[in-house]
Each structure stands twice: as C-alpha cells, then as structure tokens.
Design brief:
Elements: E1 28-33, E2 40-46, E3 57-60, E4 72-73, E5 75-82, H1 91-102, E6 108-111, E7 118-122, H2 123-128, H3 132-146, E8 152-158, H4 161-182, E9 192-196, E10 208-210, H5 223-232, E11 238-242, E12 246-248, E13 253-254, H6 255-264, E14 290-295, E15 300-305, H7 318-325, E16 336-337, H8 339-342, E17 357-359, H9 362-367, H10 374-377, H11 389-399
Parallel strand pairs: 1-4, 2-5, 3-8, 15-17
Antiparallel strand pairs: 1-7, 5-8, 6-7, 9-10, 9-11, 12-13, 14-15, 14-16
C-alpha cells in the first residue's frame, strides 16, 4: 500500500501518511459524535448478496459542507457487506477497521469505536472537497483492497438526529448480542489467545492481548472476533498468540504473551499480567472505553469512562487520566479497559476485583448493576456521593467498604506520606507530580502557596 495519493480521482489524498493525524478544535470544520454527543455509532453487518448494492453510498441528513462549522453532531456509519466467504462472526473485526481506514483519509480524524466514536474533519480538507461521498468511496476501496472476500459493499452515513437515534439503539442491541457470545468461556477452555496492533499508529508500544476472559481494551474485539480475523488474514493486525507455558495463572502471565509483546513492541514491553492493574499491567492504547486510576489515600481503585464530563475524586478528568496512561505505557494502578472486561470473573482479580473499586460514575454503576456483587453495590461511591478525596473517604467509612479494613490510622499531627512508584503526572488531587517516586512528609504545617515546583535532583 502506498503512503499517499492512492486514489487520484478523489479530491483529498488517501494513504498511510495520514494515519495518526490529529485535528485540533481550531482546525476542524465539524465534529461527528464525540464526548458531547450521546447518539453516535459505527456498525458493520454481513448481508446476503441481494440485500447489498455494490458501491452504493447513502447520506441521511446534511452532508459535510451543509453542517454548521464548529458544531458537534449526532452521527452514524452503517456498512453492509456480502461475499461467499463472509461469516457473521467476522462483523466485529471488519467493523474495527473503520477506525483504521478513516484515518488514511487526509483531513479525517477517527478515534474510538462502536458507540463512542469521535470524528473530526479538517477545514482545509473540506474546502478541497472532502465529504461523505468521498469518504464512502475511499472506505469501499480500502476495505476491498485489504479484504478480497468482500464482494459487495454499501455505506450509509447518518447525520439526521432522529434517524441516528433509531439506528443507535439497534447498534447497541447488536453489540450486546456479540459480547454475550463469549461470556461463560474461560481462558482454560482455549489453546490460543489473540493479539491486535490496530492502535499502534497512536500507541507504538501497545499490543492488545485478547483472551477468552479479557476483551480488547476498545471493547470491540472478543476472542471469537480475534479468531475470525486471524483466520481471514493470518498476517494482518489481529493474530494468534500461542499461550505456551503458563507462568502465573492467577495473574494471567503466559510465556507466549510475553514473547509476542516484546517482539511487537520492539522490546519496550517484555511482561504483561492480564488480571492486575499493578506490577506488569496490560498496556493502554488510546481507544479504551474506561480507565482505572489508583487512589492512594484510600488504597482503592476508581473507574471512569470516556463519556464522563466531570472530575474524578483524584482531581482529574477522563481526558487527563487517558493522556497520562495511554500511548502503550505500563503505569501502576492506571490502565485502559473495556466494559466487557468489567463483566468478567477475572476483572482485576489479583487486586481484589470489585472489592477494590471505590468510585465510578453513576452511568457505569447502572450499566454494571448485574455484575457488581449485591453486598458491594451501595458501598461504591459515584459522583453524587464523592467529588474529592475527603468526601470519598467519609463515604467509604460510613458504608463499610472492604478497603476500609486495611486502612491504618495515622497520627493527627501528620499528613500521610505517600511513596509513588511510576504514577503519571497529576494523580494527586490535580497536582502535577513527576513519576519515579517521591516522599513528602508534613508535620504541624500550615502552608499557603500559589505554586509548588518539584524538580528532580541532579
């Protein structure tokens, strides 16, 4: 595949040269979906040949140039494909390639997946002629060039809010049906795991490891999806990972995973443990649905999802945490996960599982209602119960959360000293602290400072 100018008849260039392109707000003509829009989705379905008109592109609602400049709008991409060798279980993996291929288009930024997509189109590219018809043609050609088993393809773009809302609910039902297939399987039931490098343009050292009991961070690829993708394209971005020797079943560490992760990250990461947020946690990309964050004052873990607009008790938003943990890094206590992993019996089992979760947004709590142990449900705080560390600790004590049993009372004249190992910038109540480990002890101190500067000793 060439790096640019793949399709000379299109008004914008298409190729790998544009993968990873970021479009900031001042540059953008329009934002499709994103954190300020509830209804947004991308969905790919396998259909019978008679249901698909090859090359057809349909636009329901205003086209790009007719959308208000600078606005954020509800949006959907609905793709239908057919082919003799296509199977329904391939839908999830092919759908995930929408992210990949949209980012090949000049002036087109695509982040995330499923019902959390966030797209931006660049002003200059729109002036050159980028619209949904051009986008559709580029996607159809890219899909067919990489997946020859697709014989026919039609694409519908939706910007009409009422129509987006209708299709949005259908998409949610289909995502749930796909996810439910893998529930009940265990890692011991399978001989291989799967790896995915689709996010390496944004996170060069990241490799998503997909086991039967740990979904891809993006929430879009299950073990079954991985199997389907590796079967269709064994040399593609989704591939088999032989389990080989199990080094630690409880933590989820396997010789085969470590080998592949070291190879694919060029030695940047050499160990991964699937079921813990500490020591050797799974790396984070940039498309994860949720991130965990360690709250040292409580010795607990918080959870926050991409659509949460406020601050967590640590003082950071989802964006602040994502910036600190993404990019393929291993950061103790902080890593990106999927909603489906939160439904797994293996969810952070090394760290105490749900017994270690002390805070999460109301929306996530409701979504996970059937998976949070009943005796814990009322003991986990939300933004309605705690907005800072003080109120969080008070709530946990009042409710008798399991983490409280491990707390050690400190003398009243001392602020608890914390030693932080490999924690990202800004994890303590919004104050920037460099990673690498520090100890701060204050006794009988009353301090007012407009600025605190901490420098590494030379």
């Amino acid at each position: 595949m060439s790096t640019s100018g793949m399709f000379a008849d299109l008004p914008v260039e298409v190729g790998l040269a544009y993968e990873g392109e970021r479009i900031r707000k001042p540059q953008m003509h329009v934002e499709l979906g994103g954190p300020n829009v509830k209804e947004k989705f991308e969905l790919l379905r396998v259909k019978s040949p008679e249901e698909v008109e090859d090359g057809k592109i349909t636009i329901i609602g205003p086209d790009v140039q007719d959308l208000e400049e600078g606005s954020s709008v509800p949006f959907g991409i609905y793709i239908e494909v057919s082919g003799d060798k296509l199977e329904v279980e391939m839908e999830g993996v092919m759908e995930r390639r929408i992210h990949d291929f949209c980012n090949y288009i000049e002036g087109f930024m695509h982040l995330n997946q499923r019902d959390s997509i966030w797209l931006r189109l660049d002003k200059k590219a729109v002036k050159k002629g980028l619209n949904f018809d051009v986008t559709g043609k580029a996607l159809q050609r890219l899909f067919k060039s990489e997946m020859s088993i697709i014989e026919k393809m039609q694409i519908t773009f939706l910007t009409e809010p009422v129509e987006v809302k209708k299709k949005f609910q259908e998409a949610l039902d289909i995502y749930e049906a796909r996810d439910a297939r893998a529930r009940g399987m265990t890692d011991n039931d399978v001989d291989v795991f799967y790896g995915c490098t689709l996010c390496q343009s944004f996170a060069p050292s990241h490799i998503c490891v997909i086991s039967a009991q740990r979904y891809a961070n993006c929430g879009a690829i299950s073990w079954f999806d991985g199997r389907a993708a590796a079967k269709v394209d064994p040399k593609g971005p989704v591939f088999e990972i032989p389990k080989e020797k199990c080094l630690d079943e409880w933590k989820g560490e396997y010789e085969g995973i470590n080998k592949i992760v070291s190879e694919k990250s060029l030695g940047e990461i050499d160990r991964i443990q699937l079921y813990t947020a500490f020591d050797y946690p799974h790396t984070s990309c940039g498309c994860f649905e949720i991130t965990t964050f360690y709250v040292p004052e409580c010795d607990g873990l918080g959870v926050v999802h991409r659509d949460f607009k406020g601050q967590t008790p640590s003082g950071l938003t989802f964006g602040g945490l994502a910036d600190s943990t993404g990019g393929g890094r291993q950061v103790n206590g902080f890593h990106g996960i999927s909603f489906e992993y939160m439904r797994s019996p293996k969810f952070l089992q090394v760290d105490g599982g749900w017994n270690r979760i002390v805070w999460l947004p109301t929306e996530v709590k409701e979504k996970m209602k059937d998976y949070i142990p009943k005796e814990l449900y009322d003991k986990i705080a939300t933004e309605d119960d705690a907005t800072d560390i003080v109120s969080l600790k008070e709530f946990l004590k009042e409710k008798g959360h399991p983490v409280v049993e491990k707390w050690v009372e400190k003398p009243p004249d001392a602020i608890e000293a914390q030693t932080l190992e490999a924690m990202p910038v800004g994890t303590i109540s919004g104050v920037g602290i460099p990673s690498g480990g520090i100890t701060i002890i204050l006794k009988n101190a009353k301090i007012h400072a407009e600025k605190v500067i901490i420098k590494r000793a030379k």
